[in-house]
Structures are given as C-alpha cells and as structure tokens.
Amino acid sequence: MEAEYFCRACGTPFQNRFPLDEEGRCALCRNGLRGFDAAYCYGVYGGVLRRLIHLFKYRKVRSLEGPLADYLLRTLPREVRFDAIVPVPLHWRRRWRRGFNQCELLAREVSRRTGIPVAKALRRPRASKAQAGLTLAARRHNVKTGSFSVAADVAGQSVLLVDDVLTTGSTAAACALALKRAGALRVSVITVARADRPWQMAPNSRAATGEGPAGYGQ
Ligand SMILES: [Zn+2]
Question: CB 58: neighbour CB atoms within 10 A?
C-alpha cells in the first residue's frame, strides 16, 4: 500500500499522521489492545477499490473474489511463514442474510493459491453490534468483553487473519486477542483496504463516509 505513515509498533499503514501519537503508535497499540503483530493492506478504501469491495460484499458479485484475492497475494510478505489462514467471521444472522462471508471466500482463494490451509477457527458466540458507528470507548468495550471464541487448535501457529477492510483495527484486534489466548504464536492481519478515520471523529464519521448499513469489515 502506498502509505506515508505506519504505526511504529504494529506496522498498520495510515494516510495521515493524525491517528499516531508522538511515539508513532496507533491508538490500539497505545492502549495495549492491538493483539496482532503485523497488519498488511493492499490499498486505501476509496475510489475503484471501495467500489470493487462493495460490489463483492453487498451486490454479491462473486466473480470478484479472484481479483480481490490477487490484491491480498500481492500484499502477502514472502518472507513470513503462515500455518493457517483464518477468516474474520460474520455473526450468523448477517451471514445468513448475505448468504456468504466475504472474508471466508477471500481466505479460501488465498489458500487455494498458496497451499496454506484455512482454519475456520473463530466464532462469534453472541450478537456483537456492528462496529461502525460505535465510539472508540464502545469498541474498546466490545474488545474487552470478548466477542470471539476459538473453535480450532491454533496453539503455536502463525496465523494470517483475513478481513476485507481494516478500519480502526478493533475487530482484528479482538480476533487476534482471542487467537492469542488460544495459544497462537503470531497473528498477522491482511486486508484488501485500509479505511482511515481520525479517531476523534469516529462517532459521527459514518454519515461522512457514506458507508452502507452493514458497516466496515463486518
Ligand atoms: Zn499499532
């Protein structure tokens, strides 16, 4: 991804310096809530990329799974070993309504081309409110109360967590923390796009970004 700014601790790219503190850390790292060890993003959530993701996710243009997986593969570092690819799960109700989990389709496609197995290791045991539109404090609460459980053996593994869009990283952080609690050695997050939103604007930025009802990356 073409980015000017990266969190010094987790490597999450940002388009501007605003989300980083004086020491160059993002808010998740600053608050000890990151959970993941690295974040890889192909591009910025906007323009054509945003449109492709919307067509794939909301208009169900399934043939886009190949091209979007291409972006993930281009972003995947060759020097890091991964034992399992884990898609970020949707809540069952949302999955049922949409008919598929876009993260799972991307994970399967990346698996097919790399030979790294998919482990559907994460479950959402209870309805977690869509992260979009929540304040940072509410997101933090969601992370702390643990909206994910682990249903596969990930002990000692280097896990590649797949999501479509990384917004604040709080969903990825909650997944990563659950995987780490279950013994995962390393958790890296890979997403097609990174959506930058200044933290301070989070409560009302939903209208400003024009995001659909399902929210980012959910
Ligand atoms: Zn960070």
Answer: 13
Q: How far from 188 is each of 56, 81, 84, CA to CA, in Å?
A: 23, 11, 11
Average pLDDT over residues 146-173: 91
Residue 212: per-residue pLDDT: 36
Find the 96 Cα to ligand 1 centroid distance in Å: 33
197 alpha carbon to ligand 1 midpoint, in Å? 14
136-138-141-147 Cα dihedral, nearest 10 degrees: -110
State the DSSP code for 68. H
Which is more confidently placed, 134 or 143? 134
The structural domains of the chain, ordered by start, are: 5-194 (3.40.50)
Ligand 1 centroid to Cα of residue 59, in Å, is 32
For residue 180, the CA-to-ligand 1 centroid distance in Å is 17
Give the environment of ion ligand 1: residues with CB less than 5 A. Answer: 7, 9-10, 26, 29
Cα-to-centroid distance, 213 and ligand 1 (Å) = 27
Expressed in angstroms and rounded, the spacing between residue 8 Cα and the centre of ligand 1 is 7
167 or 137: which leads in pLDDT:
167
- Kindly tell me if the per-residue pLDDT of 49 is higher than 70: yes
Token pair for residue 26?
Answer: 């993002």
